[in-house]
Amino acid sequence: MRPPSAPFPTRVKKSYWYLPFIPLGAVIFMCIGVGLWVHYTALAYNNTGAVIQILNVQGQGSSNSYIIRIFQSLQATAVVYCIFTGLIVGLGSYRGMLELDLDLSGRLHEYWPYFMAAILVLQGTWWIIMVWLVLLIMGDGIFLSWLWITRQGLQATLIAQGNVGASTYQYSSVYTCPATCFNANSYAFFGMSSYGGPNSGTFNSYGCICDPNTITAALSAVDTGYHATGGLMVGIWLMYIYGNVLVYYMTSIMMTATKEQDVFERLSGVIK
Question: What superkingdom does the record give (predicted)?
Fold first, then answer.
């Protein structure tokens, strides 16, 4: 049947066909990804902060400031990601309502232009979020590399101490750190850009750690952080992969809606 002046023939489908199955299915994996990413990122970075405290080293461009920024970006990313995921699911549900109205009346709903504008805005914003996730994946890769390098350095120091014995560092005007000590100056992450006197200020400004108990405690914290990066990477990749599923979904419904609008306008002209 076709109501008066309705370009499209009406039809009746099962109500569940109007549900946004694709975004709802993607959201399940995205929520798992967000949970894994937030939990294991917090675990990894908390242990990174513990390493800095245990070794008692920091310098210009302190690592603590980097960790604070990372936590801020973590919180902001998780909140924005979840909000826009909910908006996309809502948009998919609204698309189902408009399609139902089209099937029953044979005409496009009066709010159709608002739907088209909303999907353009959401799609553009979601692309920006996806680009940001790519940058975060790169940053997580760099962080994983730093943990691995630091872990190897601490392990090598303990092995050297086991073979030779622990050394004692004595500050002098000529900076030298024994091979059996952990030299934080060799790691850019610690920000040790200059050498101070022994225990100057509130931290070990010369970055030469010889105490085996301190090195062992730092290695334990690094190990915990290093093993947390597996869950961290799985989580953010789930967020990225299923985030791209929503990109394709929005592109699909936008193309379908555009085609429906075009056909409606053509048929309306014929009927008139």
Answer: Eukaryota
